Records
---
Amino acid sequence: MAIVNHGRATDRAELTDQWGTIKRLSRYLLHERKKMIGIGLLILGSTIGSVGGPLLIGFAIDDWIVNQQTGTIWPLLVGLVSLFIGQSVTLWIQQFLMIDVAQNAIFRLRTELFHALQQLPIPFYDKRRHGELMSRVTNDVDQISNTLNSAVIQIVSSVLTLGTITALMIWLSPTLTVITLMIIPLMFLSIKWITKRTGPSFKETQKAVGDLNGYIEETVSGQKLVKAFSQEERVLAEFEEKSSRLKKAAYRAQLFSGAIPKVMNLLNNGSFALIAGVGGYLALTGTQVTVGVIVIFVEYARQFTRPLNDLANQFNTLLSAIAGAERVFAIMDEPKEASKDGAKDVDLTRGKVEFKDISFGYEEGERTIKDISFTANPGDTVAFVGPTGAGKTTVTNLLGRFYEPQEGQIFIDDIPLDKMTLHSTRQAMAFVLQDPFLFEGTIRENIRYGRLQASDEEVIEAAKLANAHRFIKKLPRGYDTVLSQDDSGISQGQRQLLSIARAFIAKPTILILDEATSSIDTITEIYIQEALKRLMVGRTSFVIAHRLNTIRQADQIIVLKDGEMIESGTHTELVRRRGFYADLVEKQTAIS
Ligand SMILES: Nc1ncnc2c1ncn2[C@@H]1O[C@H](COP(=O)(O)OP(=O)(O)OP(=O)(O)O)[C@@H](O)[C@H]1O
């Protein structure tokens, strides 16, 4: 008993959720209230057209055929033709208007979703596969779009048609109405049985699509790695498993939803036979039913099951759109990256940075950084060294406010980070990362990404300072060379030089440099080092160093191990101390 109750409670909670999602989705449509009212009126018009036709035909049969009435039939014919033309025209206009409203609604939904994605914090992206997120922006939104285009009209017009037909049927013959309506409970029972199975299958299908897309995205972008490690077979096997999960879910969803029209057809034919039989009997034995009324009922019975059928079909589409909308809204409702209340825009011109008792973990209860404190004065170069996984990148992630420390406070120019807006912190910084990310676009656009207002002259100036101008000039299209995201047209070293130019143009107060570990040819390496040295002049710089000979001149070297700061000082001081750093230097010298 307890289990049954629990199940019902879950069903009810799910229904409330779905209802909430529908209400939220309809707000996007109701944004264009006037057009929606127009659509409503047009639906009313087309319903009158479809319901009025059989009524006129039935009356005509009784008057002109059964009762042999004489006189002109033209007004009736004109009425019928006008009804049918009016119905077609209103149907066409309502469709046109609905597509317009639906596409506008989808446009807003997609924009809001993309906005949300831009505002979500990095930890959100850490936990999700990028392909799966992309599937929400494309597949789920498409699914919603398809539903809004057609389902809304069908649902409203079906409900209206059902209401009008029922009223007219009761007025014409209560007995035949009861017989016609007998079909409804049967329909509901079969639809309920089917949708109970299709709902979860549609949900499962969309989940499987997202999962598969994520996997495809991952393997396409990591194709080099797949080949390098000869993982093709494993990748194929994993793909097949995911693809087969999708196949099974889609099969189940389609199989059951495809059964709906067939079941409806069967019930429809049964109802037709009953009306004809009972109606015929009533017409022959009594006076309450005429031949015209039987014709009207036969037609209405057909018209009655069609909207029910449509409702059942649309219910499935609606369910999958709701599943999509739930996933889209879930992203929109994720907590956004936001500046703290009362945070102010500040101009950070000096570049003094202080970490005070900072502790941080990526996961609850984990400590990746343990109680770190240091101060970098304006213009200082601070280098982080330590074994892999020691927490060097994490420290710079905290400075960039991609993550929030759980304990302690970070100050820039003596202002705590949470007292200034995220924008002011990041505006003051530029990052030159190990694997420079370049966007699809021209070299000029990629450099200008550092500061969008920069002029063409400033772009060239930055490229010159970054030692990139020389190689750019040699490219056939120069600054207008279009780069694709994984462009192999330019080397890794040249990508680094472009990212240095991008940092130059940003004119940052604070620089964060993650030294490239991949092998870059000696000449480009010299260009990079020279450009970086130039970039660091007059700026507070944090360098994640992999080769110790590049940081000998640093004002402060911080040695991290397992998230702890175990040593700090200048190169000379640390070598003299004969600790962990001195050991590292010795080992690296021995290797080289
Ligand atoms: N986004 C993340 N989510 C969870 N754990 C993470 C994340 N990024 C890093 N870590 C973990 O935090 C620890 C410190 O990583 P971090 O990248 O800061 O080290 P690092 O010193 O920069 O290493 P490397 O020299 O290899 O780049 C590692 O154990 C790493 O696995």
---
Amino acid sequence: MSKSLISRRPVIRRGASSGGQEKAAGAQSLLRVLGWKPFFQQQLSLDELTDCEPVRVMAVHRGQLEVSGERGDEVVLVHGPLFDDAEEKPTVGDWLLLERDSRKPLRRLERSSLFRRMAPGAKQVQLIAANIDNVLIVTSCNHDFNLSRIERYQALVKEAGCRACVVVTKADQSDAHEQYREALKSYRDLPLVLVNALDSASVEVLREYCRSGETLSLLGSSGVGKSTLLNSLAGSELAATAGIREDDSKGRHTTRHRALYAIPEGGLLLDSPGMRELGLADVSEGLTAVFSDISELAAKCRFADCAHETEPGCAVRAAMDSNELDERRVRNWRKLEREVKRNSRTLAETRAEERAFSQLVRTVGGHARSRKSGEN
Ligand SMILES: Nc1nc2c(ncn2[C@@H]2O[C@H](COP(=O)(O)OP(=O)(O)OP(=O)(O)O)[C@@H](O)[C@H]2O)c(=O)[nH]1
Ligand SMILES: [Zn+2]
């Protein structure tokens, strides 16, 4: 158990030399292991380079964040303006700038990618994870394999801004490998890999998605083998060790579930409940990218508002009739578009309500202040 906990830490050695340059180089390589890239470095001003230290958010708990940086692991309290806005506040995978001495979080760096979802039962967007490089869309060699589901995940990944690969697990239980490859042959930017997730040699092909400094996450339904894959990639029991208790010098405490793990072979794995329950929020751009073949055809329809049903001169219908376009794919495109429109409407309403409310607060506050100054 303790071995697997230790292995979650980046396997990095601090330089023995106290020379300034070597120290800086050492700090840089520590940060690189945590996913630091030129994209983030370029966002720092000269003042920030001297006065601040970047740290990566490894877990978000109520009232505090677990972060990791050149000084190792730290806990940062969640308070102040940085954390006010639901859609802007730091989430797992984010890079924060801490004031070097006070360790106060000053700002969050711009993200290279972001996963969001509609909060279940609420009309709000919830941030799930940021700065993920690659995503494995996991499905298995059985009834779970479903093109419409893969397209849904692909839209999420495109919207977030990550690279995707489809992983079909339980390859050891099927002889129909060719059938799966054939099904995804025409999908743009979507490689497919068949693996036995229980066999670490078989998952080696996925290492290219979690090279040192690269952050990988997994999407897929329950039971397809996400935990099994993560454990095989990490070389230890990642998921099963979540939430166990351990002793430390300060006494007994609970080791809470971390969302982001640095694995010994390099690379970082992100596994959070939010990622596992991801739904479509506002992914209209992602959908356009995934279904660009259909949009290209739709642009050729005679009528701009063609519903691709019985209209004359419909290019989408013509492609379906000649079997160039799968009817299921068109149905799924329509379904996802409806879902996204519904979610976008709900979000727009929530944002309008929030704006109206903060306007009201400002107006009431303004009245109160002018009354007070009138009394004085
Ligand atoms: N034979 C075989 N079994 C697998 C493979 N991948 C996963 N399994 C088994 O499938 C079951 C489900 O795997 P999990 O890794 O728990 O699935 P999951 O996607 O994490 O499921 P949730 O935690 O519910 O999201 C386990 O019993 C695994 O041992 C595989 O490639 N081959
Ligand atoms: Zn049409």
